[in-house]
Design goal:
The chain is mostly helical. It has two domains: 4-234, Rhopdopsin 7-helix transmembrane proteins; 252-314, Winged helix-like DNA-binding domain superfamily/Winged helix DNA-binding domain (Arc Repressor Mutant, subunit A). The protein has helices spanning 4-34, 39-65, 75-104, 111-127, 139-170, 176-198, 206-251, 255-265, 270-277, 281-295, 300-308. Helix 2 (39-65) runs antiparallel to helix 7.
Amino acid sequence: MHSLLDHLKLLIIGGNLMLGAAMVVYLHQTRHRYRLAPLRPIGVHLVLYNLAVLALFVYKYYELNVEGSALVFSPAPRHVVLLMIAYGFFMGFSYASLAIYLAFTEQQVSRRLRRWVILASVLLLAGIPLWLLFPQGSVGRLVHYHFYENFGVIFLVLELGLMIALPIRAGRLQDPERVRVIRAFSFLYISRYPVIAGLTLLPQPFRLMLALAYPNVVPYLWLRFFMLPHDERVVSREAMKADVERIEGHYGLSPREREILGLILAGKSNRDMEESLFISYHTVKNHVSNIYRKLGVKTRFELLHLVAKSDPGKRVG
């Protein structure tokens, strides 16, 4: 006789499947809108995770509603089936993590590596049913059991190793803001393990609910608070740069005035420009005054507003 808590757990797993489906759709739409390369392997990882949750849902439903019927597997075949499913997900997660790492570092999975991964996966999965060929209690079955029971740790170490190496590799990039975005993803990705481990202190069913939901929420948190704001700032800077180039050409700024305009838009003060350009403070003020006069503005605020909203073709120089 199963308790109400068992059925509540099944309901929680089903609810997380719906959450996972929503997150997969959100990630898919975001990838098509922003064309961000890492979102594809991240989406694959998320799909695999929710397939694993689906497998858990089917297993729990089977356990609650079909147990004791003629459809129940005998222990040995059931062990083999569950182990093959588990290893299939292990390999899928590891491959997706590798693809995420390469996407962030602007690389691709080579065909040769893909072939080796497929071959190794087929051989590893094909070796699992061999367990049935060994007699009960034999040395062969014991060795087979310990090999497959412990080999899965390698996939966990591989995933963690890639996510630890990612921020180290990202440190070579020239864009500090992009480095922060990559490191944020790595931190959130790795945080799943201590967070889920910490949830063991909570009572059921809250432990199960939060443990299943957190991996689905991690990509959303990263996109919402790190990746998309960074992408919008990059697009804004490119648009600002294009507007500045149009303004420079339209208002006839000199090379030095163009240089000072760029520094003004970068937030530099007159004293900062004096030091970086090795010119006197009075000369800086003269250049700034000339820029204001040519653009028809009186303050830096008006200048920034002009650049942000500029359409020089409709203005009178």
